[in-house]
Amino acid sequence: MLKIDMHAHILPENWPDLNKKYNISGIPYLEREDGRTIIMRNGQFFREIWPNCFDIKLRIREYAQFDVDVQVISTVPVMFCYDAEPQHCLELARYLNNDVARQQSEFPRNVIGLGTVPMQHADSAIGELRRLREDLDLPGIQIGSNVNDANLDDPELFPIFEAASDLGVAILIHPWEMMGRDKMPKYWLPWLVGMPAELSRAACSLIFGGVLERLPDLSICFAHGGGAFPYTIGRIEHGFNMRPDLVATDNPVNPREYLGRFFVDSVTHDPQALRYLIDVVGERNVVMGTDYPFPLGEQVPGNTIKALDLPESTQALLFHANALRWLNLDAKKFN
Q1: Taking the chain, what is the end-to-end CA distance rounded to the nearest angstrom?
Q2: What is the domain partition of the chain in residue ranges?
């Protein structure tokens, strides 16, 4: 059975240090010492990465061990750089997008590429959307769960979503710059607690802000199982019903009605949680993801799906059919 991992991060082996080029700060850059490759930002350690973060041939071999055929690659969220000057963010985005497109072109049966755009500047983002769709043949983009702490229903972001819908560009929403991270620096809490909250923040913003209502053809997927949103939909709906004066100010549609109108990946790390997720959003709206190659990701791709002992027809949906529908791609491309 064809298997597609729709949530896999990648970086170029090298990228230009824009801080030195423009005498600025804040753009991630690489340092290599004693055989280690380290992402630095503002002179501080951010993350160590290993060859499987940039060596596509190694990645394909690693995936093959788990009978996974295709990886949907997107950049590491620290590279979004929404807080940078738009022209610097755009320059970095174009470099990253060109690299992702090259991987997709060289390994068309193993790689699908997602781009990145400068969400802090709508005109630049829309221009890059057109380029990655029309020139680079990338079917989608990855964006953050907020843009410089602005929620995704911010009016300045709507033209970008509208352009994505018009161009048929799918969107993967990934948590980043987690809320409350300064108040919970220990125990990896920004990743364990903040990430699920960030995705619920993003989903609620798109729903209550009317973005999904105004753009019914927008193809959205939330990473990390949709975060806390699917598991707190009862509370969210109850708030909508009991205090419409606070919740339904911009969209009168019950939030539960949007279940089934977006995709979520399977990164739940818990078969019971995944079974509930399938029940809530529907088997046609869950796609296999891993967060490869990072430690918070699923270490054996598809393991949680396999643990449910689902019918083969449902497995086919989760392993590949739903991802292809989200990206509007044909399975024949990977035969």
Answers
A1: 11
A2: 4-12+51-334
Q: What is the pLDDT of residues 183-227, one digit of tens each?
A: 999 999 999 999 999 999 999 999 999 999 999 999 999 999 999
**Quick check: 289 and 266 in contact, CB under 8 A?**
yes
Distance CA 177, CA 203 (A): 16
pTM for the whole structure:
0.97
**pLDDT by residue (tens digit) across 96-128?**
999 999 999 999 999 999 999 999 999 999 999
CATH of domain 4-12+51-334: 3.20.20.140
φ/ψ of residue 133, rounded to 5? -80, -45
Q: What is the C-alpha to C-alpha distance for residues 167 and 117, in angstroms, rounded to an integer?
A: 14
Residues linked to residue 173 through DSSP beta bridges, in sequence order: 143, 222
d(CA 93, CA 81): 9
Beta-sheet strands, E only, within the chain = 4-9, 29-33, 36-41, 44-49, 70-74, 111-115, 140-144, 170-174, 220-222, 263-265, 286-287
Please tell me the predicted confidence (pLDDT) of residue 68.
Answer: 97
Number of helices (H), then strands (E), belonging to the chain: the values are: 14, 11
- List the beta strands (DSSP E) in 11-57: 29-33, 36-41, 44-49
DSSP sequence for 172-183: EEE--S-TTGGG
pLDDT tens-digit profile of 234-281?
A: 999 999 999 999 999 999 999 999 999 999 999 999 999 999 999 999
Instruction: With CA atoms as reference, report the closest residue to 97 among 122, 73, 121.
Output: 73
